[in-house]
Amino acid sequence: MESGLGSNRNERHWIFKDDSWFSQFRNGSNPWMARYAYALIFLVSNLLAWAVRDYGHNAFPEMEKLKNCQGGRGCLGAEGVLRVSLGCFAFYFVMFLSTAGNSRMYNCRDSWHSGWWSAKIGLWIALTVTSFLVPTFIVQIYGEIAHFGAGVFLLVQLVSVISFITWLNDCCQSEKTAERCHIHVMLLATAAYIICIFGIIMMYIWYAPEPSCLLNIFFITWTLVLLQLMTSASLHPKINSGFLTPGLMGLYVVFICWCAIRSEPAGESCNRKAEASNKTDWLTIISFIVALLAMVIATFSTGIDSQCFQLQFSKKEARTEDAVPYCYGFFHFVFATGAMYFAMLLIGWNTHHTIKRWTIDVGWTSTWVRIVNEWLAVCVYLWMLVAPVILKWRQTSESA
Fold it and tell me: DSSP secondary structure string, 174-185?
């Protein structure tokens, strides 16, 4: 019996590794390929929410017949985005409840996660359609909850990025690769700092052209201060983490600062880029598409990075042959919060906010969310540097 089960597993492993994508979906459930299918569903939900927001009034005149949608107008625009997001969230939350805690392959929950695509696509369509039939007050309640859920997504993504940077630094400083990667680390760190300084200079030129632009000057200058603070903390003799991690974190916080200032509404005298892009042109459309794809990729990459959130004792467990390649429950949880996040981006974090076509994440609320996320990223990074030193000092004091 065991030999038969083993041969079945080996056969499935052969299918996973050697067959084409179509054959892998046709011949059996594959958790590796399933990730892309879930990401595709998430992307389609994003596109549907955008279409409902920008073109729903002309494309869906039959919405006026729905009583639960305030004469049809409530089902489009900002509320339409929330309704699509609600259907997407419900789908991934159902998947989260049905797969959470599963640690072994070749069982029912593994098959449900990796297969049964006709049933799951039907479930996703049904939940999306149902979201347009629920009363408006439920959608408004969901919109308030989505603010919190989107914040959770940003926090999870933040921890994932910092963990990756820390892991990369640890790999470069290990005994096996320290000498071989020394030059590469110095080149990478130097390039990171050069890009950071160049980015800060360009933000001063683009977004602080006049001394009266005090808010943008504060944002950019404080980002420069945070970069110096992270570098000083990393190079402290008791920490000694080198230049690589603060350089890469500097790239991250400079990028967030740039996104925050870009989110300022068009028409502000200190945001000439926003004023220049007030008309819908090919550059605006390309920027919107890139931002949308970047959000889907960020959700996908964060969803499969469950190891940085595991408890310390779970990391020490030996990995068995039939262990799942990634945490299914965490994967769907990230996509569920990502559904709330894309809703906030498309409505500018304001449930009553009207956004111009082909724009994403625009408004003062979006700006301050980005800035707070930047400051929080620096705080989490500094804590990850200082925490081992503090714990070691406490242990030394207690032993003494």
Answer: STTTTTTTHHHH
Structural domain count of the chain: 1
Q: What angle do CA 358, 359, 363 make, to 5 degrees?
A: 160
pLDDT at 179: 67
Whether 14 is in a domain gets the answer: no
Query: Tens digits of per-residue pLDDT, 328-339?
Result: 888 899 899 999
User: CA 397 from chain center: how many Å?
Assistant: 40
> Is residue 42 a contact partner of residue 88, using CB atoms and an 8 Å limit?
yes
Q: Is 365 exposed, middle or buried (0-12, 13-18, 19+ CB in 10 A)?
A: middle
In a domain, 284, yes or no: yes
**Mean pLDDT in residue range 138-164:** 87
Identify the residue with better confidence: 162 or 72.
162
Q: Is 1 helix (H, G, I), strand (E, B) or coil?
A: coil
Give the integer Cα–Cα distance in Å for 90 and 190. 45
- Who's near 341: CB < 8 A, 6+ residues apart? 149, 150, 153, 154, 295, 299
Q: Is residue 16 part of a domain?
A: no
Per-residue DSSP letter, 156: H
Which phi and psi angles does 104 have, rounded to 5°? -125, 145
Residue 345 belongs to some domain of the structure? yes
**What's the confidence (pLDDT) of residue 204?**
92
Which runs of consecutive H residues, i.e. helices, occur in the chain?
2-18, 21-27, 31-59, 77-99, 108-114, 117-131, 136-173, 182-207, 214-234, 244-262, 272-276, 282-303, 312-315, 328-347, 364-399
The domain in which residue 114 lies consists of 29-389
Mean pLDDT of the chain: 78
Q: What is the pLDDT of residue 91?
A: 95
In this structure, the number of other CB atoms found within 10 A of the CB of residue 102 comes to 17
Q: Which residue has the tokens 């593994």?
A: 110
